Structure formats: C-alpha cells, structure tokens
Amino acid sequence: MAVDILQKPDRFLNRELSWLAFNERVLALARDSEVPLFERLRFLSISDGNLDEFFMVRFAELVTRYDSGSRSLSPDGLRLPRHLKLLRQEARALFNRQQEAWQELKVALAAQGIRILTARELTRPEKSWLEGYFVSQILPALTPVAVDPAHPFPLIPNDGLCLALRLSDDRGSHWQMMVLPPKLRRFVRLKESERYIRLEHVIPLCIKQVLPNFELESATLFHVLRDQEMEIEATEDGDLLQAFREALKGRKRGSVIRLSLAPSTPDDVRDYLCQELETSRDQIFYSDGMLNLGSVAELIRDDGPPNCYPPFEGRLPDALDEWAGDYFSAIREHELLVHHPYETFSMVVQFVQHAASDPDVVAIKQTLYRTSKDSPIVRALVEAAEAGKAVVAVVELKARFDEEANIRLAERLERAGAQVVYGFANLKTHAKVSLITRREGSQMRTYVHYGTGNYHPDTARAYSDLSLFSCEPALCRDAARLFNYVTGYAVPEKFEKLAVSPINLKATLLEKIAYEAQLAHLGKPCGIWAKMNALLEPDVIDALYQASRAGVPIELVVRGQCALRPQLEGLSSTIRVKSIVGRFLEHSRIFCFSDGHELPSPRASVYISSADWMHRNLLCRVEALVPVNGELGMKLQEVLLANLRDNANSWELASDGTYRRLWAHGERFSAQEFFCQREALPVRRKSRAFEDLFSAPG
Questions:
Q1: Catalytic residue annotation
Q2: What structural domains and CATH numbers belong to the chain?
Q3: Looking at the whole model, is its pTM more than 0.90?
Q4: Can you spell out the DSSP letters for 429-494?
Q5: Could you report the per-residue pLDDT of 623-673, keeping only the tens digit for each?
C-alpha cells in the first residue's frame, strides 16, 4: 500500500538550507550591477553577518546536539552527520561566493577611483605618512600578548579578528597574539585620498613600533566564531536576571564553531591555532580574499545617487495632519494603520512621548524586545515614571545579542521608578504592544498600539512593518489581559479579539486554514494570502497542504526560511511561494483568509502579527494575532497585492527548494518603489494608486 505523501518527511524542505538560500538572495543583490555601488557593499556586509549568525546560532545548535549523542532526524529526514556535512558544503560554497563578490566590488570601486591597497602598493610618501598615523591613532589601542609556558593562549573573542605573530630574537622564535580592536576602523584611509589599506596590513608594516626588539617571521590573520547559544538555568523561584548575567559570561567562552584562515597559512601555524582554539580542521574555512567581510560597510558613504538609493523620509499619515498631531483625538476619531517605513515610525515614538508628557495619562504599559541605543521610547518611559505615572515595562532578556543592552535599559527604568517585568523564564515575550490609560472627564479610556516590528527607531527606517493604533474597547481589554498574563501569569479565560501564543494562536491559524479548505469542498469562494519572515511549523504546513488538496488558492510571501514545498502535484499545486529581497527588509506579517469571499474583499478576515509561522513563535513565545477589519483590512490587502505583483525584487520558490529570480517581462513593478512613490493613503477613501492596483490584471 502506497504511503501518503503527507506521511513522508521529504514533504518538507530543509530549514537550514533554506536559511542559506535566503542569504544567497541577499548576496545576489551585492552582485547585481543594477544596484547602486555602495548599496551593493551594504548587501555584502549583511550577507556576511547573516552567514556568521547562521554558524553562531543554528549550526552551533546542531553541533551541540551531535556532540551530546543525539542522532535525531531533521524534519525533512536527514540524519545529523549527513545534515552537518551538507550544511558545511553549502556554507563553504556561499562563503566562496561572498569572496567572489568582494573581488567584483573592488573592481567596481577602483573604476570610481576608490582603491584598496596592499602594503606593496603603497608609495614611499604614503608609507611615511602611515607610520605617523600608526603611532598616533592605532598603536595606543593595540595589545600584543605573548604566548609561552608562563603566559597561556589568550581568549579570542567571538567574531574576533586576530593576528598570530611569529617573532624571533636572540632567544629564538616566539608567538604573540594581537586582537584587532573592534572599535578601530578596518580600512585606513591614506591622507585625504580615495586610497585605503586594511588594518591587518598596517600592523605588520609598523610592527617595530609595537615590538622593537623582535624580528617578524610571519603574520597570520584569523577570524573566530563561537557558539552563541545560551543555557539559562533559573528555577521558578530563582533570579532570572542573575541567571542571564551568568549565561552571558559563559557565552564569551563558547566553543569555536568556525575558524577562518588564508589558504597560504603554513601547516604548523594552522595546527597550532587548531590546538589552542580546541577546534578541528573540518571547522576551518579558507579564504584568498578578506576575512570578516562585514567590515566593508565602512566604505559606504551615504552621498545619494548614483552610488546610493535616493534619500527617503517616511510620510506622516493624513489623519495626524487633520488633528495637528493630537494623537489621542486622531485615534478616537478613527483607528490608524501605519505602514513603515513609508509612513513614519516617529508616530510610534511620539505616541509614547505624548503619553509621557500628557498630565491626563495615568499609566503606560510597554513591551520591549529590541530597541535602539539611547532609545527615545525608553527616555519617554523614564520621564513618565519620574513624573509619577504608573509605568510597566516588560523587558525581554532573551532577545538574542541584545541581552546586555536590555539588562542596562531595565536597570535604567527601575532607577526611574518604573515597574520592570522580565516575563517568563521559558517563553520569549515577542509581542509588540503599548497600552496607555488616560483620564478623560469622569472616565478612564485606554489606547493601544500593536506592531509587527520592534520599538526600534533606527531599524524602523530600513524595515517594512505595520502599526495599528486603536481605542476600540475589546482590543484594549485584550491588551490588558495580555499584559496581565505576562506580568502575573494570569492565563485569560478568553480573548475577545486577539489570538495569543502559546495559548491559542496556533489553533486559530489551523482553524482558519481548515475553514478555507471546507469552503473549497463546498464550492464556495476561498483563498489564503499571507506574508511573513519564515514558514517552518510542520502542522501549519500540513494544514496548508490539505487546503491545497481541497483546491484553495494560496499565495505566500515568505522572505526567509520556508520548509513548504510549493507546486507539487497532489500536494501543493495551488500554492505559490515567493520571497522579496530589496532596499527595505520585509518584516511585516499579514495574514488574510477569504471567509467565503473573493479576494480582495472588505469582508475577508485580515490580521497583523509579530509571529512567523514557526514552532518557536506559535508555542515558545508570547505573540499576538491582531484582527484588522473594514477599510484598514483593505489597506492590508493592498500591501499583500503589491507584494504578490512585484516582479522587480522577487524570487519564486520551486518544489525542489531552489529559487528563481523573477525578471520583469513587460512592465516592471516594484512593491517597495510603489509604496515609496505613491501618495499617502487617506483613512476614509482609496487613493488612485490603490484603485489602479486592485484593478490591475493578474
């Protein structure tokens, strides 16, 4: 008897290979001559950082599993040894393509007069100038560390670039390690020219200024990545904050997960580094080019076209013009849906600032997952607490790589008198919610903000996200229930409008997908449109497969990892998956279900969320699924339609896991350019651009 394909593990694509495939799409923009030159450098830097994070987090987790004796299968049926071998192969190929991109970019930079030199290419005057610069600007920050029986091999930090120096004097050969200070510029600009030399080439050239009594035999640059996963050991009555402090200390000494070297590295130097770093040869990546390509971002100058994207500032929504910046009056008049960065994120900042300074506001509750350094939102919360308002800040300590920053901002808020809550020990609070209580006459009124992205003004300029502002009582009551759940572990008996993970968000999604399948069986209008960062949850994928088998047309925009195989006969023939990678990072999550109406429809069920369709979001985090109805629901469908029609920055996923770039045949349409260039959408009527988009064929 044939096994149903829904029982076979190969119905899923590999999660980690999908992660690497996303990074290939980012790298493709770095190699695209149609992209402005400095933006290509930015994409190369991002691609390098993404690959580093892949090793520090996901690959490291798989290695830890293997070392602990686990022989479990991946969801797509790969055994761990085979899985790790395949990932190393694919990651090495990507690593090499990044180096090829850097060589191409150096040629493009040289064509514009920007030269990256080696020590041999310096002129005599440049060498003379460089020696003086080295003594005044570089030497004070350098620390050579001798390695001998009395001095153990030093700790090389994660993401650390280090020179292994072999030196000699009348006593023989000696090792010294010199970590390149991360705060020093990697590219040293020669005088006021457009000629640069990298720091690792400058140091050997000027080594006598550092170690005058030695002769330099060799200088080997290496780059270290360490396992950055943290084990948090806090009991229910333990101190979670202290547990995080201890875990952060331990992470600094995480095992080496990747060692990068030049292929010309002598065998004895390679073996010495492997021994001291306690790593094996299969963890070595060799590069003929430049280690740690993230540093190329230093060469970027934001001088506008043609080398950069045109300057862009988000618009202020029309409703605030009508109310002269009176946020509370505007929200009372009509719910506001704001599309960042096309509509300014400053509205979110000013919403909190307005609440902090308003004498009628009595309480502010706020989730903080990631935010900027010296965040204006945190400053506003401090001001509100110092003014005597009741301020509750739910600060997530488990925001990866932002743990230390979040500890500092939590301490700052506590000093101001705010009540800081760290949430659950075993769940990340990832929902983006602000709740403001205001005295209006003899009554108390609440206002709520739900977002798909972080309260981070810096990244909000580069991320595509959504904000909903409302004083609708049910949405505000649900926000209060969500805060009570996180701060007091009070599991609500029900939510009126929200679905919240880990309580009922996954179940709600499965019900909505199943209902669309039921509509298809009945021959009624059906359809699912969704936009997210990742699609990995097996039960949700299987539900989408069942809906596709029933005949439901499903259009998905999945920016990053996707484990669903689209366009497979008998499984997913009605499912189309695409990814958009462009100037802005597509970060918003929008989910639309027809509910028996032809899409687009004002009667469809439309939601925004901070949750991707992943196991961690649906079961291991506190997330919110927020309904957006009526005219604002149509605005969200406009965003989805624009993404689905994009043929300028889109890649289509095939059933074998490969991505094919969509090239415009005929009229070129970029969703991101559409939202940059069109007029702001008024609250109560459709714009001409909106009408044209809905009436466009296809």
A1: 430
A2: 31-299 (3.30.1840.10), 318-488 (3.30.870.10), 499-695 (3.30.870.10)
A3: yes
A4: E--EEEEEEEEETTEEEEEEEEESS-S-TTGGGTEEEEEEEE--HHHHHHHHHHHHHHHH----S-
A5: 999 999 999 999 999 999 999 999 999 999 999 999 999 987 778 999 999
